[in-house]
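Hello again, I could really use a second opinion on something today. For a while now I've been wondering how a particular protein folds. Please have a think about how the structure follows from the sequence. Here's the protein in full, and shout if anything looks odd to you:

***
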Amino acid sequence: MNSLARGKNTSGVEVTSISAHGVWILAHDKELFMSYDDFPWFQDETVSTILNVEESSNGHFYWPDLDVDLSVEIIENPGLFPLKAKQS
């Protein structure tokens, strides 16, 4: 018996883990880690706020409750993109 292939993932991004050190997301079969040192906006937020993420366009993620917009490139290379906003 053959199993049917799983359907296409309709959500482009998913938070897979929230730890004491940062947040892991899965986007198009690629795991990305956002440390609180590099992405302080997430550190003191609720789980539901962090889980509420949308892929606004391919490789661009938006957390509407936080008004945070990040790309894969920023997440993979945070040192190349100095923080422009301050954590409230």
In short: The chain has one domain: 13-80. The mean pLDDT is 87.
